[in-house]
Write a structure and sequence with these properties.
The chain is mostly helical. Helices cover 78% and strands 0% of the residues.
Length: 147
């Protein structure tokens, strides 16, 4: 069992949980002329992020560690504070998700490095797939800010 890896995965779980909730909230509240586009994009993102929560938790359990699950605890562990956004126009919400997603990518990369160094290939493969998904979200969110 790797306590260091379990802690890193718990940090990922916290960051992903925060991103899921924020993206879902953005989906509910987005306004602006491009509402339909962003309403659907935020749903696509939060669905993908949500589907990663259970596998993250199961990877922690594979290491013999109990998974944090209280929202209060996950929020305290997250890299991104659960701050209010300054408005609900899609540009504001996209900028928020760019920032939150960057923190998720950072924590996933830390956990990936630890998993790789400990030869935990199954966990490393899972994390590599999640990194790829969040890099896609980074690309798409950043591209929507241009122009």
């Amino acid at each position: 069992m790797s306590q260091e890896l379990a802690v890193a995965l718990s940090g990922c779980l916290a960051d992903v949980t925060v991103m899921y909730h924020r993206t879902h909230g953005h989906h509910w509240n987005v306004v602006g002329t491009d509402f339909p586009q962003y309403h659907l994009k935020f749903e696509e993102i939060y669905t993908d992020v949500y589907e990663s929560i259970d596998p993250l938790a199961e990877n922690i359990r594979k290491l013999g560690v109990f998974v944090p699950f209280r929202l209060k605890d996950l929020s305290a562990m997250a890299s991104t504070p659960d701050d209010a956004v300054s408005g609900y126009h899609h540009e504001t919400l996209v900028a928020d998700l760019v920032s939150v997603n960057a923190e998720v990518l950072r924590s996933l990369n830390v956990a990936f490095q630890i998993a790789s160094s400990e030869n935990q290939q199954g966990i490393a493969n899972f994390l590599a797939d999640r990194i790829d998904s969040h890099q896609k979200w980074a690309w798409q969110l950043n591209a929507s800010q241009q122009g």
